[in-house]
Amino acid sequence: MRLAAAPISWGVCEVPGWGYQMPLARVLEEAARLGLRDVEAGPPGFFPHDAHAARELVRDRRMRIVGGFVTAVLHRRDVLEREFAELERRAAWLGDVGAEVLVLAAASGRDGYDAPVELDAGQWRTLLASLPRAVEVARGHGLDVAVHPHIGTAIETGRSIARFLAESDLPLCLDTGHVFVGGGDPVAIARDHARRIRHVHLKDADAALASAVRERRLGYADAVARGLFRPLGDGGARIGEVLAELTRSGYDGWGVLEQDVALRSRPSDEEAPERQIARSRDFARARLASYDVLTMGRVSVDLYPEQIGVPLAKVTTFAKSLGGSATNVAVAAARLGHSSAVLTKVGADGFGDYVREALAGFGVDARYVGTDERYRTPLVFCEIHPPDRFPLLFYREPTAPDMTIASGELPLDAIRDAQLFWTTGTGLSAEPSRDATLLALETARGIRVHDLDHRPSLWPAGEDPSRWALEAARRATVVVGNVDEIEMATGQRDPARAASTLLALGPDIVVVKRGLDGASAFTVEGGVSVPGMKVEVLCGLGAGDAFGGALAHAMLAKWHLPHALAFANAAGAIVASRLACADAMPTPEEVDALLRNQSSDERLRREERVERLSK
């Protein structure tokens, strides 16, 4: 499950007179700080009406809009055409900003959500007949529909939810709070109707206030103002059981953290909704059974010169960024929409604090970032000489905290349950990290990727990196490396011959990164290659890790190897054109856009060649 944020958690609501409306900039800033870089759209007008402007606004913040809540009166024939015209407009905007889901509530036709709605038989027939038309409208703009039971709408009570599920086959938005307040059982829905659930709004509710709303002793708006919706785990909706059922069913869509609030005035920092949302985020993360991607290995604080093409002695200013191969891969996976975490260690210093804060900001779970009091968080300085020279200077002496990870410290359950587990070669360069890395590979039950990640300067004299690379390969299902790294591991510089040596040890796939020349992948049945992407290289550092995160994304999606390599190549190329590692990791939309542009350019080149030949 991928966690996202909703503006209603900051008091932003479409109901007139709801309360103080937090400004967009603050909502996005706080959501990003919480690591929730995927957001719903909020009410009309919260984001710019111009879809291009809205899309650029979130893109500039490294965020995206994943869905939007839309209401429509679908049980009254006399207003259907007007309602569908508005639905068409909202769907067009959501499609243009890159959203995936239109969350549809069957509105009452009144302002607010205080009055009960009871449909007669004819109105139910009209509603059920109208819903498929709404689906077609959404599909026309590339959106899925998820029908949202909601207090004060036509589908609100346990009885009306059951009728919708029985008489329609449309996908559902499981809003745990609204289902609970309406008298339904969110746990039972998650268990019995798992295949119908396309989208989830995660919210908890105070049992006493929910009962008062359900029995019409208290209006909905008044109940919200009194704290109807609570941080996850603080109410009666049994959110832990809901999450367990969703995990058991393999639900991999969005889990939008919602805690509807009505603000009387601009909140102070101490009263900020951000604090409550953080509690819900932590509750959900703690109970989601597995990560899509869990990486293990190196972390650093990278210092990039802001003067390009000069040696370190001439650099006057640096830009700080999160770095380290395993860490970058986890960030890259998170940017591509996956739940991810990194298993590493930092020092008890300000840079260690920065690592944790930066990971949270990227949406990477930092719970497995340990602290070693003896050593300092590593720093890495680099020079930038485009297009292909980027020397590094590592500060990891006498050793780095991430090299002190011991077997007894491993979160074995998390490693075992991760869908994809990623290790790196630097972790093999010394004990106790070496034994821990090999044990972790043996423990993992999902896709096991070993990135050869060879940094000669980080290996002590007398150690044999080839020996340990081959030991890791014996435990992995996928081995990844560049041409220099596969030569280190096998003694063969030819990708096909090196891959043959590695495949004989047991991996299913060997992937060879060839930089500007593209990438290749080999199995026992043969190999495939894709060409490089044409971009203006600014800094090649981090490109391989972007490739790795995108490769993990493709493997989880079970793409064919040519598609997987092309997508990973494009992700790496994007980072090569930017200055930074973790901060530069692309979104799926950016990767797809580059692939489309490259395909278009190649098509034009082919047409030009044909035209020249025909003359």
Report low-confidence residues grouped into runs of 5 or more.
604-615
Oligomeric state of this protein: single chain
Please state roughly what percent of the residues sit in beta strands, choosing from under 5%, 5-15%, 15-25%, 25-35%, 35-45% or over 45%: 15-25%
Tertiary shape: elongated
Mean pLDDT: 91
Please report the first level of CATH classification, the CATH class of the largest domain.
Alpha Beta
Any overview of this molecule?
This protein has 21 helices and 24 strands. It is an alpha/beta fold and 615 residues long. Helix 7 runs parallel beside helix 10 (239-249) and helix 20 crosses helix 21 (588-614). Strand 4 (101-106), helix 4 (121-139) and strand 5 (144-147) form a beta-alpha-beta unit. It folds into two domains: 2-287, Divalent-metal-dependent TIM barrel enzymes (TIM Barrel, Alpha-Beta Barrel), CATH 3.20.20; 293-602, UDP-N-acetylmuramoyl-L-alanine:D-glutamate ligase. The radius of gyration is 26 Å and the shape is elongated.
In brief:
The protein is of the alpha/beta class and 615 residues long. Strands 11, 14, 15, 16, 19, 20, 21, 22, 23 and 24 form a 10-stranded mixed beta sheet that branches.
Structure characteristics:
615 residues, TIM Barrel, UDP-N-acetylmuramoyl-L-alanine:D-glutamate ligase, 2 domains, ten-stranded mixed beta sheet, 21 helices, 40% helix, disordered C terminus
